[in-house]
Amino acid sequence: MLSNCNAMLCACLGERDANNLMAMVEHPAFSDDAACQRGEIAHSLNLLLLADLLERVPLAAMYVAERCAAGERLFLDHGAVRSIVGAAVGLPAGRRHFARLLEPLGYYQNSVYPLKRLKMTGYSYTHRDYPEEIGQFFVSELDICQFDSTFQAAAHAVFDSACDPLSEGSRQLLNKLSVNNSLTLSEAQRLLPQLMACFRRLHALPGRTHYETLKMYSAEAAWIATEGSAYNHVTDRIDSVDAFSDLAHKRGLPIKEKVEVSAQGSVRQTAFRAANVMRPLLNDDGLAELVPVPGAFFEFISRDRLADGSLDLRFDASNAQGIFKMTDSAA
Question: Which one of 25, 114, 130, 210 has the minimum C-beta count within 10 Å?
């Protein structure tokens, strides 16, 4: 049953947009329960984050529209977010900003992936109740201590202004959810907008000079400077990434040149390249000027079954670092 999910989305988006969003995606088989189970709230959050990304990424919106026109639905495999360690003092450090939201929703930290080329570490979060049906989160941390003093000064100038949007009332609801694994519908409807507020830029408008300094060292740090905690990408689980990649190349779509294949050969990934978005940056006079920067993007993944019949939900550090390059420079 999906009545709780639909009711939560209606409260956030309105009935028409909620119904359209529900029609885009495959859903888990939730039980028919008056209370909103943590899995339903987690899935609804994933749907809202998808809707937010589709507004920011026109190519993703086109892809989804084509799938829906063909009578097909997306399967939300995972979403990715980026974080900073060593700055952003107004927020819990790095992945902890997201973990405090995800764990009450039923997620647990599954695996750790060193992303050494990027001076980052990735952490996967998998849902306890619906590991194969509810989208995972891939949370990456960039540690500013791995960079020199020039980078660190720019990072502090940009990220130390971060403010935590989570209210005391929302913390109480998350605590209740951790204990009971469910909320009333009205409580879940109050909580979801607060959770969404945590997935945006939470620091002050960056200065252009500081942004350019970060970009010299790390495209990922520069991306976080303009986009913050927003979805970096969302991923559709499809039958054959290779077939889709070939078709996208033939259509002339801006897709990654080669498919990323995991070391075990069981996970294959590709992605559209991030397009430019216009973001305000402060010039030397303190005035905001719109500047083209890389935005978010849309990814595709195929996962094989393991010997025990379960889906291979692992990620791959090499794959991830290849996919991250989609935001290095925008077309």
Answer: 114
DSSP state of 181: S
| Amino acid identity for residue 54 in this structure | L
pLDDT tens digit sequence for 163-198: 999 999 999 999 999 999 999 999 999 999 999 999
The residue type at 257: E
Contacts of 310 (CB under 8 A, 6+ apart): 132
CB contact set of 216 (below 8 Å; sequence gap of 6+): none
Q: Which amino acid is at 208?
A: R
Tokens of 175: 């605590």
The model's pTM: 0.96
Q: At what angle do helices 15-24 and 58-69 cross, to 10 degrees?
A: 70
Which two structure tokens, joined as six digits, stand for 21? 């969003």
User: How far apart (Å, rounded) are the C-alpha atoms in residues 278 and 284?
Assistant: 19
**Cα dist. 188→7, 12, 45, 173 in Å?**
10, 11, 10, 8
100 in the Ramachandran plot: left (φ > 0), alpha (ψ -120 to 50) or beta?
Answer: alpha
Cβ atoms of 190 and 176 within 8 Å: the answer is no
Polymer length of the chain:
331
Read off the pLDDT of residues 142-155 as tens digits, 9 standing for 90 and up.
Answer: 999 999 999 999 99
Task: Give the HSE-up count for residue 74: Cα atoms under 13 Å, Cβ half-sphere.
Answer: 30
303, two tokens: 């996962």
